[in-house]
Amino acid sequence: MSGYVSGLLILVGINIIAVLGVSILTGFTRLFSFGNAGFMAIGAYTAGILSSRFGVPFIPALIAGALMAGLISLALGKLTLGLKGDYFLIATLGFGESLRVLIENIEITGGARGLANIPPRTTLLVVWVSVVIAIIGAWNFLHSKYGRNLMAIREQEMAADAVGIDTAKFKTLAFMISAIYAGWAGGLFSHYYTFISPISFALSKSAELTITVVVGGLGSLTGSIIATILLTLLPELLRAASVYRMLFYGIAVVLIVTLRPNGLLGYREFSWEWIKRLIAPKSGSSIEKGDAS
Question: Is the pLDDT of residue 30 over 50?
Fold first, then answer.
């Protein structure tokens, strides 16, 4: 396998882990956040600093980065999850941008110059073992009583609260798991590129993760995975178009959102049976929202 193809597969795997975290928060809890790039930065810098400056082995450094992102999200969640709708979104956006500015002005992170000399520990095997673990973890969580509580909050928070679901607790849990996944992806990112800078975790990265979940379909893990693969590879496939490739990329995203308002697999999970029904539906039958294999 060529280095170019291997690099693309590594990048796809890292993005899948980050997008799964956003899917849990946005797709299954309906909390829109622009702070996940900030949590990626926490994971990337924590793991990178531990590896490059303190000689901590790769796996413990990776776990520390993910846990640090989770702990900070727990503190942030206590302050912001009482906010509703756009106010929570704005709060997370402010967190992400404030964190980026803070990183630019701290010496241990390398400041605006970035953090270099991170050991190259992220390999194709490490990334895809991580992807498998991340998918299994997210799937089991969302199909447990905790995941069902999150979906109840997504559909009608007031009703969920009325039947005894501790909505504040479960929204905090979703926020923390989303941040852990982002920190995990960030640690893999830093040990793949071996150099990171604050610009790698700007607002545009958070927007990219959220757009990917929307394109894949809210409430669909497999939809988020398929959308991640498509939207990560599409700019590379259009590279031959040089300066126009991002224009074509944007048009493709707009067409998907316009033609499929619920995303590629909104509220459904991929299955061959679902594909058969989509291609040749039985007379009089329809695919309802929430139908899952």
Answer: yes
